[in-house]
Design goal:
Blueprint lengths: L7 E5 L2 E4 L1 E4 L12 H13 L4 E3 L7 H16 L8 E6 L8 H15 L6 E4 L8 H14 L6 E4 L3 H9 L6 E5 L11 H7 L3 E5 L25 H13 L1 H19 L3 H10 L4 E7 L8 H5 L8 H11 L5 H5 L9
Length: 339
Amino acid sequence: MKLPGESRLQFTADLNICRILNGMWQVSGAHGRINPQAAIESMFQYVDAGFTTWDLADHYGPAEDFVGEFRRQFAAKRGQAALSQIQAFTKWVPRPGKMTKKFVTENIEISLRRMAVESLDLMQFHWWEYRDSNYLDALKYMAELQTEGKIKHLALTNFDTEHLQIITETGIKIVSNQVQFSLVDRRPEVNMVKFCQQHDIKLFTYGSLCGGFLSEKYLGKPEARSFDLTTVSLRKYKNMIDAWGGWQLFQELLNTLKQIADKHKVSIANVAVRYILDQPAVGGVIVGARLGIAEHLEDNAKVFSFQLDAEDSDRINTISQKSRNLYELIGDCGDEYRR
């Protein structure tokens, strides 16, 4: 299996990435136990299949350590130069409070050590409390570390449009923002997409499969109950589906997606990911990787085997128009984490 050229994006001058990113939230412990050896072995399979780009965070359990160990083994087997094939995007999620250069540096250096890199490809910064403006100091110090070569590019996670604009206006160059974006949660379309287009900022999207709900597994099935929701992802996205319009409307969406999927000889998940990938400003979609437990490499590769046409989009949008307005209910991107 080899991914086509359109699976790649020249994200920055020095980073050519896969547009489906391997999400490592699934190794954080909230999705079941992960065997480290099996996880590292499956990381080889991902990269060899063309899925070379990893999304992780300092608080995703052993995710940064897995990347470090994988890089050591990859270099030992393939040579040091082969490491240029791999991109690993981490996050720093500090508690709000006073930020000093020493504190910021110490935390960035933890990620450097764990990931066994001299410079972080992308540091995606998250901040819990906008009323605490120390996030601007944190970003200023990270920009200094970028100048010193410890960070290649600065990015954000779950920032809303207003605060992305504040940061941009300070002169700090942000290359991406990671947000929830799916056929259920289309809030980025309200303000975020336009701002990102204007400022050459890419969106990396998560939740684009609603934790697995956007799949054949739930088509025609009775509403999932609380004890059926065995992972933190399923619990999170069932709440989102409820807010969006409920199970009956969701079944209508799944039925429509199934018809579109059958037309293109792909899966519901493929259609859901393709739709988001095709949206303006979207650089890539993060698909959870349950390393060593469940691999979907062949199915994920089919995302790049077809194109949605205008009729497909119209049918999907017709369903969306029946849903509640999540922007009015929840707010802009990331506001669900700050209420």
